[in-house]
User: Which sequence fits this backbone?
C-alpha cells in the first residue's frame, strides 16, 4: 500500500482535533491509495472508499429482496441507509439537495463528528479543506440564526458549488457504507438535473453500489455513470422549456477540475430506473444500454407520483387513476431484467406474492427511528396514526414539478391552509426551478412557487402558480434544518404514501417507535433481532 495523498495534515481538521472538539478526529489525515481504490483509516473504523472490492457481493450475491426507497430531502439519510444495509437489504440515501444538506449540517457544528470524519477521508484534502472553510461553524450557529445559503445551482456552476455537491455525495455514501460490507444505493430525481453529475461523482468516489433515478425519463444516467467512473468530463443535456429542437443547453462537469489527481477507474454501480409504466420500461430497456433493472412504482407511493395517463380528472381534488395506469407486469417480466414493486407493498404477503425480485418500501422506513425526519414530527405522525389516522392528500398542485405529490395533512405544516397562506413566497434553494429559453436565447430559471409577479415576469402563467408549495424549503425543514426567517423556522412539508395508515403493524408491543430492523423483520416474517 502506498500513501500517495493526504500525508499532509488537513490544517483546519487538525486544528479542531487539537482543540479536542471532536473525539473521532485523529491528528493526521490518512487516506491511502491501493491498487483499486482508496482506503481511509480513521482509527476507529476502516472504510474502503471507491474500491470495487468494497461491494459486498462482488457482483455475485443475489439481489436484495427489499429496497429501502430513496426519500428526499435527507429522510433516507446515511443513518437509515446504513441500518438497512447492515440487515443485508439495500439501503438507499437520497441524492436530492445533498449539497445544501451538507452545508447546513456543517453550520450546525456536526456535534457527532461524523461529517468531519467522512470529509477527512475525501480523496483530495484541498477540496475538503475548502468546503469546511466555507461552511463549517465550530460549535454550531446560534439557534434562530439563519443558515447561510450557497448560491443556487445554475447550468454554469462555480467550482465551489460543484465541490460542495461532490463532497455532499461523498459524505452521505461514505457514512452509509461505513462499518459493514452491505450494499448502498443513491436516489436521484430526473426532474432535478443540475447538481446530479457532481453529487453522483461524489457518491461514486465513496463506492456507491446502486443508482436509482425516478420522476422522469432517466436516459442520460447510464452514460454519465460510464464516464464518471473513468473520471471523464460529462455534458448533461438540460431540459429547457421553449428551446428549439436543434438547440442544446448543457451542464458540464469535469472530475479533474475538482480532484488534483484522478483515482483509478471506479466500479460502475448498477442502475435502476424507477418507472410507472411498462411502456417506459420497455423503451428504456431497448434504447438505453446500461439499465440493470427497474423499480415499478404505483400511485399510492409516498413522494411524487407519475401523473395519470390521459387527461387529468380529479375527485375530491385528487387525481383519478384508472385501469390505464395499471402496469402490465407481464411486459416488464418479458424484458428479463430484475424488477422491484413499490407503492403499498410493505407486507410479508405482498413481498411473497410480488413475483418480482422484491419490493421497494418508503413510507414504513420514513417513520422509523433511523429516518432523518424530525423526531418530533415522526412521533406526532405515529401518535396520530394510532389515534385514528393521518390523511394523505395526493395534491396535483403542490409540487412545482407539476407531478402529483402526496402530502400528509398535519396541522402546523405547509398542508395547513393557514400556515401556507402566512408563508411569504420566495425561492432561495431553487432545486425545482424550471429552465426556460429567454427571447434572447439565454437560459432563465423560474419556479411556480416563487413570488407570483416574478414568475409571471419570467413568462410563466399565473394559473400555474395557485396552490404551489415551496417543496425545497418545506422538505429541508422536515428533517430539522429549515431556514430561519425573522426568528421563525420555515414550516415543514411531510410526504407519505397511503400506506401510512398501516404503520401500527410495525410497532413492537409496548413500544412507541420502531427501527429499520423491525421493518425488515416484519417484512421477512422473522423475529426481530
Ligand atoms: C418521505 C418520502 C420521500 C420520498 N422521496 C422520494 C425521492 O426523493 N425520490 C424517489 O424516487 N422516491 C421518493 N419516495 C418514494 C419511495 O422511494 C418509495 O418508492 C415509495 O415510498 C414506496 O411506496 P410506499 O410509500 O408505499 O412504501 C419518497 C417516499 C416517501 C415516503
Assistant:
Amino acid at each position: 500500500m502506498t500513501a500517495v495523498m493526504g500525508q499532509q495534515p488537513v490544517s483546519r481538521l487538525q486544528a479542531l482535533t487539537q482543540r479536542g472538539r471532536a473525539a473521532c478526529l485523529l491528528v493526521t489525515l490518512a487516506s491511502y491509495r491501493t491498487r483499486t481504490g482508496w482506503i481511509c483509516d480513521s482509527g476507529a473504523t476502516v472504510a474502503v472508499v471507491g474500491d470495487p472490492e468494497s461491494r459486498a457481493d462482488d457482483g455475485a450475491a443475489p439481489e436484495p429482496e427489499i429496497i429501502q426507497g430513496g426519500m428526499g430531502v435527507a429522510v433516507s439519510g446515511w443513518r437509515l441507509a446504513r441500518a438497512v444495509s447492515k440487515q443485508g437489504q439495500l439501503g438507499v440515501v437520497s441524492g436530492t439537495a445533498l449539497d445544501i444538506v451538507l452545508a447546513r449540517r456543517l453550520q450546525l457544528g456536526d456535534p457527532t463528528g461524523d461529517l468531519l470524519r467522512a470529509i477527512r477521508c475525501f480523496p483530495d484534502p484541498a477540496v475538503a479543506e475548502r468546503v469546511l472553510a466555507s461552511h463549517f461553524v465550530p460549535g454550531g450557529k446560534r439557534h434562530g440564526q439563519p443558515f447561510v445559503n450557497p448560491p443556487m445551482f445554475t447550468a454554469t456552476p462555480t467550482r465551489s458549488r460543484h465541490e460542495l455537491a461532490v463532497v455532499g455525495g461523498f459524505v452521505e455514501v461514505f457514512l452509509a457504507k461505513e462499518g459493514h460490507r452491505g450494499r448502498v444505493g443513491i436516489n436521484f430525481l430526473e426532474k432535478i438535473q443540475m447538481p446530479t453529475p457532481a453529487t453522483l461523482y461524489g457518491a461514486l468516489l465513496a463506492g456507491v453500489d446502486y443508482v436509482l433515478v425516478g420522476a422522469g425519463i432517466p436516459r442520460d444516467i447510464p452514460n454519465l455513470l460510464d464516464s464518471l467512473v473513468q473520471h471523464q468530463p460529462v455534458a448533461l443535456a438540460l431540459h429547457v422549456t421553449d428551446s428549439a429542437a436543434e438547440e442544446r443547453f448543457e451542464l458540464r462537469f469535469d472530475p479533474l477540475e475538482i480532484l488534483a489527481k484522478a483515482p483509478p477507474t471506479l466500479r460502475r454501480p448498477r442502475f435502476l430506473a424507477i418507472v410507472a409504466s411498462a411502456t417506459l420500461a420497455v423503451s428504456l430497456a431497448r434504447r438505453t444500454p446500461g439499465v440493470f433493472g427497474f423499480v415499478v412504482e404505483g400511485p399510492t407511493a409516498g413522494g411524487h407520483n407519475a401523473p395519470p395517463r390521459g387527461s387529468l380528472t380529479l375527485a375530491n381534488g385528487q387525481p383519478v387513476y384508472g385501469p390505464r395506469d395499471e402496469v402490465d407486469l407481464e411486459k416488464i417480466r418479458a424484458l428479463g431484467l430484475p424488477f422491484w414493486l413499490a407503492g403499498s407493498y410493505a407486507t410479508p404477503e405482498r413481498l411473497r406474492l410480488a413475483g418480482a425480485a422484491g419490493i421497494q418500501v418508503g413510507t414504513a422506513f420514513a417513520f422509523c427511528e433511523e429516518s432523518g425526519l424530525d423526531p418530533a414530527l415522526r412521533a406526532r405522525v405515529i401518535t396520530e396514526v394510532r389515534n385514528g389516522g393521518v390523511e394523505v392528500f395526493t395534491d396535483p398542485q403542490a409540487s412545482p414539478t407539476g407531478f402529483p405529490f402526496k402530502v400528509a395533512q398535519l396541522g402546523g405544516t405547509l398542508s395547513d391552509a393557514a400556515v401556507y397562506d402566512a408563508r411569504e413566497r420566495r425561492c432561495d434553494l431553487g432545486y425545482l426551478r424550471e429552465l426556460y429559453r429567454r427571447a434572447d436565447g439565454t437560459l432563465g430559471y423560474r419556479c411556480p412557487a416563487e413570488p407570483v409577479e416574478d414568475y409571471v415576469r419570467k413568462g410563466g402563467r399565473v394559473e400555474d402558480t395557485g396552490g404551489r408549495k415551496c417543496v425545497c424549503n418545506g422538505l429541508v425543514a422536515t428533517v430539522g434544518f429549515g431556514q430561519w426567517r425573522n426568528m421563525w423556522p420555515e414550516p415543514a412539508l411531510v410526504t407519505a404514501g397511503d400506506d401510512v395508515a398501516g404503520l401500527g403493524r410495525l410497532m413492537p408491543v409496548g413500544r412507541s417507535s420502531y427501527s429499520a430492523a423491525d421493518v425488515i423483520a416484519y417484512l421477512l416474517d422473522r423475529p426481530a433481532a
